[in-house]
Amino acid sequence: MSLVWKGVMPAVTTKFTQNDELDLDMFQTNIKAQLDAGVEGIILGGTLGEASTLSPKEKSILVKETVILANGSVPTIINIAEQTTKGAIDTAHIAEKDGAQGLMLLPPMRYKADSRETITYFSEIAKNTSLPIMLYNNPIDYGIEITLDMLDELTPHNNIQAVKESTRDISNVTRIRNRFGSRYSILTGVDTLGMESLLMGADGWVAGLVCAFPRETVAIYKLIKANRIEEALKIYRWFLPLLELDVSTKLVQNIKLAEVHTGIGTENVRAPRLPLAGKERERVLAIIEEGLRTRPTLPNYKSI
């Protein structure tokens, strides 16, 4: 499958049973909802996917299951967040064997690598896999910024094709485009800057609240790309209080609670995470319930 880095690509949550095992039935329900809504890729094992808590076997199961569910309609992409270059290369090899069609790649975990080390890390992985790669630029959460100069040094690697832009600096979309033209696809990774980034020229949206509201997320993307800005803005303004649930240390719990209320998920998380409780849960639930009460009627966005 040829991977085109565009459109809405959900960073899906990992579904667990109450016995802390993979809940493949609910996982299937959610993935089908994403595909039905018109997403253009499925990303597994990101922050929302509770990647740091998953075993290699569980990651393989999720990749294989998603490949079957997608059935060639959209690419299956797995996130790589490893501490060592060797570990990252091994993970890429396993992903390729399992049928993944792309990788989302974070800088080294735990150790704060400098620019030379980070470039070498990305380069070695790129040289050791045939899979297309999207670099994940999130210095706020992960401590290492992928600068424009670093991207410049990585341009010889043809399979490094995209950047998930999560610096929270909206101008960075324009900076990347001005410097590199179409060399790198740009996908926004911050829900609360989703529409703004697309208007600045981003090619796609690696989204979080899409896990609970897939149709609304894809509708915004499709309307913007069709230059139907007012229609997109109306939905986006409704969506913003929900999108803000993604910009939180409890984003996994927040979004899983939203998935429960749209019928495509459960609240089960893997310890040390715990489901929301008390006033915190009441606050998030009030936002979700208000969003559902005022949920907009969508245009026939699939025909755009």
From TrEMBL:
Lineage, opening ranks: Bacteria, Pseudomonadati, Bacteroidota, Flavobacteriia, Flavobacteriales
Entry keywords, A to Z: Lyase
Binding-site list for pyruvate: V206
GO molecular function, a single term: 4-hydroxy-tetrahydrodipicolinate synthase activity
Pfam families cross-referenced by the UniProt entry: DHDPS
Family per record: Belongs to the DapA family.
Name of the protein in its database record: 4-hydroxy-tetrahydrodipicolinate synthase
EC identifiers of the protein: 4.3.3.7
InterPro entries named among the record's database cross-references: Aldolase_TIM (IPR013785), DapA-like (IPR002220)
Catalytic residues (UniProt): Y136 (proton donor/acceptor), K164 (schiff-base intermediate with substrate)
Top-level lineage group: Bacteria
GO cellular component: cytosol
BP-aspect Gene Ontology terms: N-acetylneuraminate catabolic process
Species in which this protein is naturally found: Saonia flava
Class of this enzyme: lyase
